[in-house]
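ARCHIVE CARD
CATEGORY: sequence design from structure
SOURCE FIELD: tokenized fold
FIELD CONTENT:
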């Protein structure tokens, strides 16, 4: 596409291209999307009525923004998606390290080139994806990383220290006329935070003792965890004051939103020879596990319960179902309640149990999963059809569950019990394949057990449901 764009400064002037500050450019493109009723960017769910209106206001106001929230709340994804609000191509003075505006160059190199060649100054074009810079704040981050430093190689080549061309620019100047992001900003040493004050307010940088002033055009965006979560560092007050807007993010407020996020983010678990199909009630259990964990007094809420927990749980359940299918020779499989025992691996590293609960982590996580199953059961199954199922067990019915029970075994059980079949059909439909019938059957049996209507004996990954 750049082949048709102007190649010299004179051609650029003739084309009518106009230079605008980066925040004005973002605001102009944001206005078009808002007026058209389009979202600012795709792929972020659950923020339509909370975070997005605040972000739209911040962009229209031309603010630098800091996103404040716990882990796994799409802060980085939103920041990186802001590049979609930049123009697709931007002209710079060819060879410029800091994306010099051809009309208003700021570096010594670009100024000299424009002064010498005037309208013949060569122009290069930068794509919007290349106008984004990012730095994960770490305690060892230096001013040289962010702003710049004298390059000893250039000095060794014969230049004087007083020559501006001896400077190796840091990440912030190299993102001139673009968006620069700092993740986990409080982890940045306080003395380094001071170095950003001029960038945010005066819009310039000063390097070492050089008498240079680079009036940068940068939109600065940052992410941070709430102050009551991290003790690793803090934001100095002057820096916090210079951000125009602080936007608080949050986890999905509704189970349905979390389900949709998981569907988008989870890896495809199908493999050659085995197809995984998800019943809606099992997806609801996965999402509800995270929702229950976020409200549990036994789990450290300051560290957060990320949506990544739901994604990992979804993937591990599917993997366990595939493993079960491979062992029994099935080609179509659906996750079951008996697969929920595999969540210990995916939950342990993503949920922090309160310190006073040491030694009870396994029991607490099991209780979270059981609560999620019970809540999903109450929302998915009509209670008026359950007494007949309980009556069947009181008349001597015994049901076995576990990895070694095939889908065909569950189908035979359902066919022999009309009351149970009625409930299962309402969950998965009359034409459901055996794997879905098996999953629904286990779900109903476990729900009746957690509702204290059936007894359950567990041993070695197998379970037996019987009357109380």
């Amino acid at each position: 596409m750049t082949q048709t764009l102007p190649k010299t400064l004179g051609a650029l002037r003739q084309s009518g291209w106009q230079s605008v500050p980066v925040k004005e450019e973002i605001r102009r493109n944001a206005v078009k999307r808002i007026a058209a009723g389009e979202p600012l960017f795709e792929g972020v769910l659950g923020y339509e009525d909370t975070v997005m209106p605040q972000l739209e206001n911040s962009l229209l106001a031309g603010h630098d923004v800091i996103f404040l929230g716990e882990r796994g709340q799409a802060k980085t994804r939103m920041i990186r998606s802001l590049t979609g609000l930049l123009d697709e191509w931007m002209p710079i003075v060819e060879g410029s390290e800091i994306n010099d505006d051809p009309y208003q160059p700021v570096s010594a190199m670009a100024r000299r080139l424009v002064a010498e060649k005037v309208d013949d100054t060569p122009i290069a074009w930068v794509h919007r994806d290349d106008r984004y810079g990012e730095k994960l704040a770490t305690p060892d981050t230096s001013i040289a990383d962010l702003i710049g430093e004298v390059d000893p190689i250039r000095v060794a080549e014969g230049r004087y220290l007083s020559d501006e061309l001896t400077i190796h620019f840091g990440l912030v100047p190299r993102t001139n006329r673009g968006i620069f992001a700092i993740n986990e900003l409080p982890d940045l040493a306080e003395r380094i935070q001071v170095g950003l004050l001029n960038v945010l307010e005066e819009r310039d940088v000063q390097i070492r003792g050089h008498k240079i002033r680079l009036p940068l055009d940068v939109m600065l965006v940052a992410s941070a965890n709430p102050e009551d979560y991290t003790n690793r560092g803090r934001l100095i007050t002057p820096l916090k004051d210079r951000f125009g807007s602080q936007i608080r993010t949050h986890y999905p407020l509704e189970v349905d939103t979390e389900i949709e996020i998981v569907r988008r983010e989870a890896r495809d678990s199908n493999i050659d020879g085995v197809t995984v199909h998800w019943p809606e009630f099992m997806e609801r259990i996965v999402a509800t596990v995270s929702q229950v964990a976020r409200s549990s007094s036994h789990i450290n809420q300051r560290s957060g319960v990320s949506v990544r927990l739901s994604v990992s749980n979804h993937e591990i359940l599917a993997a366990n179902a595939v493993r079960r299918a491979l062992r029994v020779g099935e080609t179509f499989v659906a996750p079951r309640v008996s697969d929920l025992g595999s969540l210990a691996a995916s939950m342990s590293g993503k949920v922090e149990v309160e310190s006073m609960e040491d030694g009870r982590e396994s029991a607490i996580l099991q209780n979270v999963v059981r609560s999620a199953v019970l809540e999903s059961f109450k929302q998915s199954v009509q209670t008026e059809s359950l007494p007949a199922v309980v009556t069947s067990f009181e008349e001597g019915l015994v049901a076995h569950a576990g990895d070694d029970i095939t889908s065909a075994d569950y189908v035979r059980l359902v066919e022999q019990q009309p009351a149970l079949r009625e409930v299962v059909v309402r969950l998965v439909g009359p034409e459901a394949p055996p794997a879905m019938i098996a999953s629904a059957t286990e779900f109903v049996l476990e729900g009746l057990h957690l509702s204290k209507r059936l007894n359950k004996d567990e041993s070695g990954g197998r379970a037996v449901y019987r009357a109380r």
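CARD ANNOTATION: The chain has a mean pLDDT of 88. The two ends are 73 Å apart (CA to CA).
SHELF: design records, drawer C
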